[in-house]
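User: My advisor, Dr. K., asked me to get a structural model of this assembly before our group meeting. I'm new to this, so sorry if the format is off. These are the inputs:
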Amino acid sequence: MDAIQKELLKQVADLDALPVGAYNIRADGKSIGRNSTANIQITPKEDLPGIDIHILPGTRNESMHIPVIMQESGLKDMVYNDFHVGENCDVTIVAGCGIHNCGTGTSAHDGIHTFYIGENSRVRYVEKHYGEGDGRGKQVMNPTTVIHLAKGASMTMETSQIKGIDDTVRTTSADLEEGAALVVREKILTTGDQKAETTFRVDLNGKGSSADVVSRSVARDQSSQHLIARVNGNSECAGHTECDSIIIDQGRVLAQPELEANCVDASLVHEAAIGKIAGEQLIKLMTLGLTEQEAEEQIINGFLR
Amino acid sequence: MLRLEHVSYDAEDKIEILKDIDLEITDRFVAITGPNGGGKSTLARLIAGIIRPTQGRILLDGEDITDLTVTERARRGVSYAFQQPVRFKGLRVRDLLKLAAGKDTTLNDACAYLSEVGLCARDYIDRELNASLSGGEMKRIEIATILARNTRLSVFDEPEAGIDLWSFQNLIHVFEKMSRESGGSILIISHQERILSIAERIIVLSGGRVEKQGTREEILPGLLKDTCSVLQEKMKGGAE
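Assistant: The format is fine. Below is the predicted structure of the whole assembly, which you can bring to the meeting.
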């Protein structure tokens, strides 16, 4: 790996070296490193670009890394990764994509991740998106995540896009069986004239299923964001969605909650707050000796932590 | 140390909140008291630089700080504890203490500040300063940030408001200790007799003017005399 690849890997997966355990590292459309373990098998797909991951039932306290890094300007990469997680597992999956584009062509990565999570399994899924580059070419990412949670299964998805992605359409859909739980924590920062569109669609089908989707975002400069958070309560279930946004300069945010209760025992809640940084927050930090700019930076860093 | 020369402040609707305040604060522990709406909090905000006087000058150690920003005053040694502490989504107690102290805060450092206000650092250092903390907890953390700053002048705007009775007793010890050990001066806005009774000097602000000022011995008996016995008992009892 060269220095740029190493830096991208650090940004998206916190990796300084090859990870321990199972991994697949995809660089500029090709796998440059892959390792399966006794419990986590990674095999390339035969008909499509991408990999199949099979995690054996009962696999606990294991993690896998599947970062994607790109630095070839103008490359359009599309990848399909399917995760088959057996029953009674407890695993962490770290994904993420970093693009370094110094050229003039648009670099794009569209990742389609599908999770089949077995009964009573717990999955923590961490996904970071990052872009950089001094060229005129754009960095574009359109991640799609499809989650099927079996009875009693749960998934916590931590997804962030903090810097450098010019255009993104993020789509996440989930269906939950009895007693399954989904927690989503999304963080987005857009700057310049970037655009981000995020859609969540959660079907709470099973009795006692729950979803907690929280999106925190900051839109600065002339950037714009559009969030659609849809939860369908199809049985006795609990759904909560929250959109919390800070707008700075001419940033724009459209938060669009959609709650549909199709069962009298469905309990669905949406909260949304969009606004600039509260003046008293800035003043409090200024009374500690920070300049207004430093105070703003601290508030945003904390908000998107 | 702090001098206010003919300071007046008009609110946006031209209502005169403070009228020709002329004060010299040289004592280590000064309390400002007086009826609600008398201009006490406005005076504290003027000193911190959050608002600017309509007329008059403010001097800190001889330097005219009237036109200095909140940041510049903070860097010259003015600390200000909010009457209603500000909440932040995402920022933690550790972050605020670090910013206040101006250096990285270890668990030991945090313990030194937080234990003073009756909080265990281990339980609180990673708590977010959001709605999950009660008003009383926020208030104590606010006071801890002032301890962490340890500056030339610390201004507290009604530190007792929202603090329970048990904590109030400890709060008195915090101010006594601060006055004894820190090299700086304390300016407290308060209605509480217990706080007034440990101040070296008391200033009574009423109707936007300094009604009277003097040593504790000169002012406090008169204040209590004007109050009915039921109220006196309640004031002795502790916090609101």
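One thing worth pointing out at the meeting: Chain A is about 10% helix and 60% strand.

User: Perfect, thanks a lot.
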